[in-house]
């Protein structure tokens, strides 16, 4: 304090030398309410300011008395500025809450940990090493089905129990494809003898057989009560499992074995891939029994088995080419245009989208036999999962979309690659299909 006093005493004339402008010298004024303002008095005051009379300190007694009498006579004691309401509170350009140290930096989303090793490994003896088959599927009831040779096994993920569904006869087998119905109770089994069997997994009973193909059925896909089947004969059938004459529509386009089938989430478009290196997109609304394709995509240079519809962009389809092609391509299903093509360096066997993040998982064959997690749309490799010693031909994911199961080299491996979502939404329950004992007989 003493030092401050000394400084002030040494410079006593500093402040007068730099007089601050008084607010009254600023002639700009704010008049919010002219009705309650005395215009005459205000004009008089402003006129005095312009002539410099606001600096007068002393006035004669007669002049003061005259001004007082004049003000009382003309009611001039009112204020120049009057407010009916309180002035609005000042608006803060940056809220104080955001200036706190915890909010100064954007909170970045924590990167989840992706384990490089499988959480569980199960033996899968007699698992076929055939690129064109589809022998693994995880149903909505949290039961995983896998075909080993001529036998279909069911593995319950809730208690890790294993049971046998069916072992087909040698002349009918081996099993070439399996697919769970949306209800999680019924399962379709494609066979080497060109037949498709429909089973009830709870009662473990064969409900009916679907015939029509001439060679093995290697691909299956459900669309509510419609079971779509693709075979080595190049034909694709839509089978309505509720009626006796089950073949209701045929898609003709592939010249070789159909090894990939996927319905879009809306159920309006079907994607098919074949050993003829082609991808077809079919429109469900076509009324003709022999429907014409919507798009014929021929950019791949090898067989196309891996197909996956994007869960967050309805018209986006991903496809993967086999050995010699090694690419993942992205298609606009409305226009048929190729949006992007990524060289993976190895045979693409299966594709799965992450339902919680913009990510795509691919499984591969020659030469790395690995799983690759890609960030979409940049297609940057996020991680690679290594463990299989042979081609990872089959891949499926759990109903909650978090766990991925992959099969190859006679092993079944489970990966927590997609992580646990912040808010896990339960999978919508499909109403049971109206199975009729009259039509669901073995034929």
From TrEMBL:
GO BP, sorted A to Z: anaphase-promoting complex-dependent catabolic process; cell division; positive regulation of anaphase-promoting complex-dependent catabolic process
Record carries keyword Aminoacyl-tRNA synthetase: no
WD repeat boundaries on the chain: 168-200, 251-283
Key word DNA repair present: no
MF terms in GO: anaphase-promoting complex binding; ubiquitin ligase activator activity
Stored InterPro entries: Cdc20/Fizzy (IPR033010), WD40/YVTN_repeat-like_dom_sf (IPR015943), WD40_CDC20-Fz (IPR056150), WD40_repeat_CS (IPR019775), WD40_repeat_dom_sf (IPR036322), WD40_rpt (IPR001680)
Positions of the CDC20/Fizzy WD40 domain: 122-415
CDD domains, per database record: WD40 (cd00200)
Family indicated by similarity: Belongs to the WD repeat CDC20/Fizzy family.
Protein name: CDC20/Fizzy WD40 domain-containing protein
